[in-house]
Amino acid sequence: MEIVNEVRNLGVYVAYDVVAGVDNTRYVPQLEEEVRRVVEEVRRTLSLDTLKDHLIIRAYRDFYWRVLGIDPTKQRPAQEALLRRVLRGEPLPRINPAVDAGNAASIKYMVPIGLYDIAKIRGGVLRIRFSRKGEVFRPIGGSPIELDNQIVLASDSQILHIYPYRDSVETKIEESTRDILVVVAGVAGVGEERLVETARYLRNLFSLLGGAPVGEIRLA
């Protein structure tokens, strides 16, 4: 699996990884314990009142304003929305083991993470690029959207993701998923090393589900 980045000049970059053989049908105690530990760590070290001013969160908010033209108080960065939920005392959403692992990694490192079922991806090379007029995106939990000049992760025939906050229902992770593409989304002001460290941490969580990496963590 290869990702080509056509918009790096906008401060867009990713770390990506492939993990194969995940058993996403059952929870294991080690993963449950790690998710609980991460939630406790976040609540101990972060504050809801000052979250928006954290350097990492601020970098994504600035990207929303300056590059995407989105008000981040109305469409929050994905990881900020998760963090706010946890800091309000609500539980981290529970979807399935792999998605829950991704959410735990996202709040721990404060970066957005996309997870994609490789068996559902059509086409070869994926590109981070601007959408083409008339392309349609089918989001998880929403109606199809016709795109016009938005940053996406896509093949020639399929859009997986609107960068860096919304994934497609076409490639979502389900209990039957075995092989996963991990994409950690970065923006200007967030070091590549944080993205790689996040991907490495998520490898470790997926290993609890029987997953094994295929190749090295790569940057694009």
UniProtKB/TrEMBL annotation:
It comes from Pyrobaculum ferrireducens. Coiled coil: none annotated. It comes from the Archaea. InterPro entries: B3/B4_tRNA-bd, Phe-tRNA_synthase-like_B3/B4. This is B3/B4 tRNA-binding domain-containing protein. SMART domains: B3_4 (SM00873). One of its GO terms (molecular function) is RNA binding. Residues 59-211 form the B3/B4 tRNA-binding domain. Gene3D superfamilies: Phenylalanyl-trna Synthetase, Chain B, domain 3.
